[in-house]
Amino acid sequence: MVMTYLIINGPNLNALGQRNPSHYGRLTLAQLQERVQQRATELGVEVAFCQSNHEGALVDYLQQHGPAAQGIIINPGAFTHYSIALRDALADLATPIVEVHLSNIQAREEFRRRSVTGEAARGIISGLGWHGYILALEHLVRLSKGELE
Predict the structure, then answer these.
(1) What are the start-end ranges of the E strands in the chain?
(2) How are beta strands 71-75 and 46-51 bridged, if at all?
(3) What are the tens digits of pLDDT across the range 100-129?
(4) Catalytic annotation on 82?
């Protein structure tokens, strides 16, 4: 059985490498995805990437592909802080979810410190840059293999 993990990125993450590198780093989204793909290959699993600036497109993607995935890694971007629709789409899934943020949202503006989408996640990785995606993937793979409780 091929294990597939979804890597979902929300609004403005398509501008990585250009947008506020002091918070988000200098890697582009394509470079980040390449690093995640490389680690997935090493782990013997498949990853599928999705990025959208549109809330409904992310909800549609989750509803269509989420139930069959072994795990979901999501960086909801600004939707983190207010999207009840995205939170509900995540909560409706039995699939394990890890929310990832490149920057430490707890060290940012007050409005960024609350994650409504994180309420539907098994865990949140924040502030570790692109490496947070790798850690999330490794965690979900170990979970799928029954190595974690």
Answers:
(1) 4-9, 46-51, 71-75, 97-101, 123-126
(2) unpaired
(3) 999 887 767 676 667 899 999 999 999 999
(4) no
Contacts with 149 (C-beta within 8 Å, 6 or more apart), sequence order: none
Options 23, 61, 101, 133, the catalytic residue: 101
| Residue 98 reports pLDDT greater than 80 | yes
Cα–Cα nearest to 143, from 61, 43, 34: 43
User: Which residues neighbour 3 within 8 Å (Cβ) at sequence distance 6 or greater?
Assistant: 44, 45, 46, 70, 141, 144
pLDDT, residue 112, reads: 64
Domains in the chain: ranges and CATH: 4-72+82-144 (3.40.50.9100)
How many Cβ atoms are within 10 Å of 98's Cβ, its own excluded? 24
- Of 5, 24, 133, 139, which one is the catalytic site residue? 24
Determine whether 24 is an active site residue. Answer: yes
Cβ contacts of 29 within 8 Å, gap of 6 or more: 9, 13, 14, 16, 17, 51
